[in-house]
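FORM 7B: Structural annotation worksheet

SECTION A. Query
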Amino acid sequence: MRKKKNLRKQWYQKLCERDGERCRVCNKMPPEVYLEIDHVDGNKNNNAKDGGNYQLLCRTDNRKKNPRGKAVRKVFINNEINADDEQMSPEMRQNRRAEAAFRHWLYEKIKAHGRYPVKDAIFAGAERVQCSPYAIRTSYLPKMVSSEGMYVMFDDSEAKQKMLMFRSAAMIGVDAGMIELPVDEGEEDDATTGL
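SECTION B. Predicted structure
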């Protein structure tokens, strides 16, 4: 059972980085809602190793998509706009979408390069997802490099700049021996606050 919980936590973190920590339907984020891992095709046995069949849904939208009991399943469109989303201010809606897009963009960059400069993450990311560099520097990145985040920030003495990389190889499905963190455990706390 413990192995299943650890696997769920790893997939949850991967999906948060890929799609943002939000419901794919209503865009609500924790702690407002509890997110569950859903099988896109509804087949609980279709567990593709790349996670392509997984998405995060809030409990309410997951129950709408996958009704319990004898209820007839309805076709559920992932891009459906929830009424709550319509009631949000345009700024809140844009911020929610920008954070999800930034998380996905940064995940792909670090997956491709192994590490990525913080400065480029802030400014290139802001340009890519059309948001303020201030939002990335003060809101998105601090969450992503926190103790629960998927990334670690460290000083690269060779490049003479702060860099980001995955906290754990297990989060991206890579053999743990392939990635080494260049910071000591004692330095990790300082590295996460160095934005």
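SECTION C. Observations
The helical segments are 2-19, 59-65, 83-87, 90-113, 118-129, 133-144, 185-192. The radius of gyration is 18 Å.

SECTION D. Sign-off
Analyst initials: ____
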